[in-house]
Amino acid sequence: MRLEQQYRLLHQHYGEADSHPGLPALAALLNCSERNVRLQLGKMQAQGWIAWQAGRGRGRLSTLRCLRAPDTLALDSVGRLLAQGELEQAFARLPPEQRGQLMAQLSCYLGAGNNRRQLRIPIHRQLTTLDPQQVSSRLEAHLVRQLFDRLCDFDVHSQTLQPALAHHWEAQHDACRWRFWLRPGISFHDGTPLDAQAVAASLRRLDHPACPWRRQYRGLRAIRLHDALSLSFELADSDWLWPQRLITANASIVPLRRAAGFAQLPVGSGPFRVLRHSPQRLTLQANPHYYRERPLLDEIDLWVIDTPAQQQGFDVRLDAAGGDRSLQSACTYLVPNPQRPLLRDAASRRWLLRLLSQPSVITADDPLRRPAHGLLPDWQQPAVAPAAAALPPGSQLRLVTYELAAFQPLAQALAARLAAAGIGLQIVTLDYPRYERLQEWWPDTDLVLGSEVLHDDRDYSCHEWFGSNPTLRLALGEVGGARMDAALLAIQRQPSPAARMAAYRQIGDWLVAEGWLLPLSHEYQGVIASPAVAGLTLGLNGWMDFSRLWLQDEA
């Protein structure tokens, strides 16, 4: 670092033109002896920073020319740190105004590292939490699934429950009680045992205001421990969905004792553990003692790169235009706020949603999305019921959405449709943490543009969406919420998955027809990967199981 500082002094004093300083002048400028000046100039010349010709003979001055802008030296040094994976040190080396330049060069240092069992992947924003109790977005939920285990697992292909921490379970008393038996010998990453006591404490944490899906577990009345490896759950009503409630990221099992920084540096029992976590990077390291198959990679490095253009060149990156892609498992939708003056009347809401849906604002040739005719890609919901209560020309509406690239063209298309009818639309885009604080902005918002992505279990995902989506619950209000709760209670009492899916579809019918929620599009979810990446299969949530990824030599 001292050599760089001395070069900055030379550049500041002499610029990039030829100059003819003597050694005494250089020694005074650099505050060192003439002997050290020669040594330092030799080092600078060896690195290509200067052209230096010492004067030979009496009366002949030396010739000096600075060849590099000082700021590029800092980027060179952080580049070396990046190549070694030291992102935090690289950022510390740079002033804030240069960190953007660093991010622009970051993709050159990412991808597969020297260790052929290490992979580096970009993510679009900083993580809010890795505490299972608090996660609500699909990014954090996916990472929690890599770090923690749950009682049950779910096979996306067969759509069936599979054993996980519990090797067996059974319903008792018409599914008002469920008993689970745990595998022996499982430990958390810190070596503490994972037993029935830890399971019970973890699931009791779900009855806490910090849990965004708390409503989904309100039927739990008591937990009974039979021994260290067996426990029962007493429920308020018959619930054939109870084991499926326990496969969600929120229901992950955590240790009884947790450090103060658990949300950032959690300890789980999953296939990976957290090696480091900073605002710029999360590093996951394989758990060598995992009770199932050990992950095929040693490490997964996730780097926060918020600009899509800077995500080029990575070994794996999520991209809707990627070659390996599928349709979003649910939809991108619009929710009107019935509490707003212009939308208090149900007929006005229906008129507005019909205006925005007939015809669809999504064109048939859109490469990133498909027009939605239902809440799920294979559903066909009835159209919004007709209404004659048009909003008056000159009306002004406010739409809130969050920072997701796919939302911006949709918001602009909605604004254009409304402008043609003489209605103005203010578009407000929030960062995700602010978007989650719904109570701060909901009272002043007319329309919310959001998106739902199911996890691997379509059945329970629908129950979770309709039962606990905060925007939908606020829009439905007390009366609509009670109607929804009654429908979902009947669904959980139904042992047939096919009958439950049919009932969810009926809920979707009245949500759309009555103007509570308007499906707009099904986005494509895709991934672009290097040919060296193997074992990559996208789940319904648009992510891949990290433990199955591996790197093969490119032919």
TrEMBL record:
Residue ranges that the Swiss-Prot or TrEMBL entry lists as coiled coil: none
Keyword line: DNA-binding
Residues spanning the membrane: none
Name this polypeptide is given: ABC transporter substrate-binding protein
InterPro entries to which the protein is assigned, alphabetical: SBP_5 (IPR039424), SBP_5_dom (IPR000914), SgrR_HTH_N (IPR025370)
Key word Metal-binding present: no
Pfam family, one: SgrR_N
Species this protein is from: Vogesella oryzagri
The keyword DNA-binding appears for this protein: yes
